Amino acid sequence: MNVQRMGTAMGVVFAVMAVLPFFFGGTDHVMHILIMCLVWGIVASCWDLIMGFAGIFSFGQVAFFVVGAYASAIFALERGVAPPAAVFLAGMVAAACGVLVGIACLRLKGAYVALVTFAFHMVLEPLLKSPMGRSLGTGGSRGILTIPPIEIFGLVFDADHKVAVFYLALILAVVCALVIWAVIRSFWGTAFLALKDSEKFAASLGVSAFKYKLGVFALTSFLTGVAGGFYAHYVGMLSTRMLGIDLFVILMIMVVVGGIGKFPGAILGAIVTVTLNELLSPLGPYRPLTLGALVVVLVLILPDGVVGLAERVFSGRRSGASRDAAPAL
Amino acid sequence: MPWLEFLDVLISGLTNGAVYALMAVGLTLIYGVSKAFNFAYGSFYSLGGYLAWIILVPLGLWGGYATVFVLAVPLLLGIGFLTEKAVVAPLRARADWEIKVMMLTLGLALCLDNLYQVVFGPRMKSLPAIVEGSLELGGVIVSNQNLGIFFLSIGGMLSFRWLLNHSRVGMAVRAVAQNPQGARIVGIPEKTIFAATFAISTAMVGAGGILLTQKYFVSPTGGWDILVKSWVITAFGGMGSIQGALYAAFILGLMEAFVGYWFGMSWVLFAMFGLLLGTLVVRPQGLMGKWG
Known about the structure:
The complex is a heterodimer.
Chain A: H1 3-24, H2 28-53, H3 61-78, H4 83-105, H5 111-129, H6 131-136, E1 150-152, E2 155-157, H7 162-185, H8 187-197, H9 199-204, H10 209-235, H11 245-258, H12 265-279, H13 286-301, H14 305-314, H15 316-325
Helix pairs in contact in A: 1-7, 2-7, 2-10, 2-11, 2-12, 3-4, 3-5, 3-10, 4-10, 7-10, 11-12, 11-13, 11-14, 14-15
Chain B: H1 3-34, H2 41-56, H3 65-88, H4 97-120, E1 134-137, E2 140-143, H5 144-166, H6 168-178, H7 180-185, H8 190-212, H9 223-237, H10 242-263, H11 266-282
Antiparallel strand pairs in B: 1-2
Helix pairs in contact in B: 1-5, 1-8, 1-9, 1-10, 2-3, 2-4, 2-8, 2-9, 3-8, 5-6, 5-8, 6-8, 9-10, 9-11, 10-11
């Protein structure tokens, strides 16, 4: 998908989202789902940027989200920072974690990167519950309750004012999407492609893997951390249950549905998946089972996501030819 | 610490290390041969535990653990073979299949874990010990269960090594690992070997589940811990190196036992993560591994 069409698709998705509150503004439940679509849209497109475009198999996205959420809540509660500033600081904390994880992954490739980033995810829950985490204010296994909502110029963005929260989330999502779009179409995007295709060749042309890989880790974890902070102030409570494997898999479904490396497919994937997950909730204990099975089926039958499918339908011949050329093994 | 207790912790560490070795070798085998990373590995550990539980507790078949191994190991082999053929093999034709396999197996893991929860309930199941009683050696008491687990794991490892070095399948597996194209040229059915490797590794982790869940418990999500441990061992020992996995497993088993004894079990994960990061920063290829 070329960058112009990416921009158009993004514009259409957000424009449609922007008018939805006029129809559903009165229904809190629907508004909540729409807000979550936007928040997860940010996280999923960050994951898509690092995995689909930069080719780094990072499995730490949920962990950065949780780090952002906890950091923002702790800044607001323990240090008395105003929530909007706390959200920004939380992004910085998540970015710092991202850079640290990125440094550990720098010399690694493929499955090893997935291993280290996922290990960060696995170790986060015991860390938050440990005495060390409790002394920071994570609340141990009880989690954090009563997080103050975001307040700007007297406007309160809490669960009682869902339409206001929605538009704030929309602004955040548009800004994040524009940043990601700008990165993809800039020199950075080209550098990622070069590094993904052949790291050695790219390095010989003077593309610094060190700079760009750490840069993408910092950027995606910053945006994810900001989304996490926003989420924390919106729902008002946090627990380590977010680190369960269900949420991770749901996020993965978003990226798979949207298509890996098919920005802004991930945003679309987030909208589809959050809605689907909500529709599946009557299944109770069978819901995670269905979600897991869904991943297996989707990866097998829809490997390029809805965007890849649309590309194949609209420009059948050209993408058909490139598909034939791609599988070398 | 008194040296009797020290010996106790040492024996526990060695026993766990032996089982970890068996499971880590299974993981390193699939990655070494087919470059596929299996996130559902831990779920097959739980599967082994549940199969043992079904055979021993509700069915109560004659023969105890001998029957468990005779019935469960071929079943695990079959399940592994079919899983590879059904969900992993179709992805191999794609350029970005590595990440697709990781995603797919992660979904499979969630699916299986919740399937266990629906079928067996969220409560933990306990299994009877493989051998009752204990042995006294010069004042040191060693439970027969630990000894049994230790020797069965070592036996499993040795028979796997013999299989890999001397049987036709094993030689084909090694050939594919060294050079898939060359193996294809001399007529080795590459695809069948990939599936066979997956099957063997599933059986190894399932056997690990049968051996280890009797010391702990079988639970729907108990496999994640095992996945992480097998992973850390594989990375620490060197991906693709069986010898390395063997040493790493014992080092990690002992580390776990002693860190758990001195600082508490919650520190084990941190210690492992630290060890993993340290290894990867200083020597990314692991103890005895080679890149590639």
